[in-house]
Amino acid sequence: MGNDQAHQVNRTDSTGGGVPGIQSAGRTAAFVMSPALGDTLNLLIVAHNLVRGGWRVDVFGDHAYALAAWFPHLSIAPALTPGEARELLARYPYVIQMHRDRPLAQLGDWHAGFINLHEAEFAQNTDCMAKRFADFARKRFDLHDVETSNGMLAPAGLSFRKHASRVAIHPEASTPDKRWIPERFLELSRRLHASGLQVEFVLDARERSRWEELAGDLPPLRSFPSSSQLAAWLYESGWFIGNDSGVGHLASALGIPTLTLFRRRRVAQRWRPGFTVGDIVLPSWWVPTAALKERWWRESIGVGRVLKAFRALRLRVSGHPTPADRSERFDA
C-alpha cells in the first residue's frame, strides 16, 4: 500500500546510518529483506534481537524502508538492486536473507558469510514463524536473551487501540487461493456491525473496484498511500480479521489481536501471525484429502464459525464477556 520516504539512509556514510566502514568486525550484519510484507516483519525479529545483543545491523528492503519510522533502532535503506548488491554486501562479514535464492539469487555462491533461514522456516514443528525466527536468532548467534518481537515502536501522537470497537477486516490476499468468499466477508461485517462493532475493510487501492461492484451495502473501504499510514490506522484499531496475508502480520506486530482464516493446518501453524494474541479459523474436518481441502476450504468455513472464533478471541483478550457477547448467538 505504497512506500514512505520517512527515513533516509545514506549508503556511503561511514560515520552513522547506512553502510559504515565496517566496524566491530564479526558482529556486523546486512539483512536483505523479502519483497513480501509478512516475510519482512518476521525476519526483522532476527535483526531486532541482534541489535539487542550488541550487533551492528543494516537492513535493506522496501517494506522495511516504508516503515522505518516505526523502527528507530534500526538502520534501514531501500532494497538493493542486483547491480549494486555485490560490491556493497561484500563489506559485511555476514549477510542474512530469509530465502536461499531470493530476492538475491546465488548470494551464497560468492559471499562466505551468507546465512539463510530455510531450515528454520521448514523445520518440522508446530511453532509459528515469529517463534521460529526468535529461536533461530538465539541458537545461531548465541544470544541469551531473545524476544518474539521485531521492536516496532509507534511514532509519537498515536494511541494504542484508541478505537477499541473498530474491527479492521482485510478480505484480500496476495493470491486468490488464500481469499475467503467475498459475500461471506460482507455477511460477517453486517453481523459484527449489528452487534455494535465498527467494521471497516482495508484494501489496496487497486483492489477496491472488485468490492465496489458487489451487490448490497458495503462497510467503509479504507486504502492508504503508504505502509506507515496503514500501520498507524491498524495501531489505533481494536481488532483485526483477515485472510493469510502480510497485513495480518503487521497488525499482530503492532499488538492488535488477530483472527486469521487459513486453508490448511500446516500452513496455519507456520504462518499464523505470532507477535501477540491471535487465533485462526481452519476448514471443517469433513473435507477429505489435501486436494479437496484446497478446492473447497472457502465453502467449508461458515460465517457463524468465524463469529464464534472472534467471540472467543474477544473473551481471551478482555477476560470477560461484553454485553454484545452475551446477547449474540453464533450458529456454526
Topology:
Blueprint: E1 28-32, H1 37-52, E2 56-60, H2 62-66, E3 75-77, H3 82-89, E4 94-97, H4 107-110, E5 114-116, H5 118-121, H6 129-140, E6 163-170, H7 182-194, E7 198-202, H8 208-212, E8 221-222, H9 227-235, E9 237-243, H10 246-253, E10 258-261, H11 265-271, E11 278-281, H12 290-300, H13 303-318, H14 323-327
Parallel strand pairs: 1-2, 1-4, 2-3, 4-5, 6-7, 6-9, 7-8, 9-10, 10-11
Helix pairs in contact: 1-6, 1-10, 7-13
Identify the notable features of this structure and list them briefly.
332 residues, alpha/beta, Rossmann fold, six-stranded parallel β-sheet, five-stranded parallel β-sheet, 14 helices, 11 strands, globular, disordered N terminus, disordered C terminus
Walk me through the structure.
This protein is of the alpha/beta class and 332 residues long. It folds into two domains: 28-140, 3-Layer(aba) Sandwich (Rossmann fold); 163-327, Glycogen Phosphorylase B (Rossmann fold, 3-Layer(aba) Sandwich), CATH 3.40.50. It is 37% helix and 15% strand. The chain has 14 helices and eleven strands. It has helices spanning 37-52, 62-66, 82-89, 107-110, 118-121, 129-140, 182-194, 208-212, 227-235, 246-253, 265-271, 290-300, 303-318, 323-327; strands at 28-32, 56-60, 75-77, 94-97, 114-116, 163-170, 198-202, 221-222, 237-243, 258-261, 278-281. The strands form two sheets. It has a six-stranded parallel beta sheet, with helices on both faces. Strand 6, helix 7 and strand 7 form a beta-alpha-beta unit. The radius of gyration is 21 Å and the shape is globular. The protein starts with 27 loop residues before the first strand and ends in a 5-residue tail after the last helix.
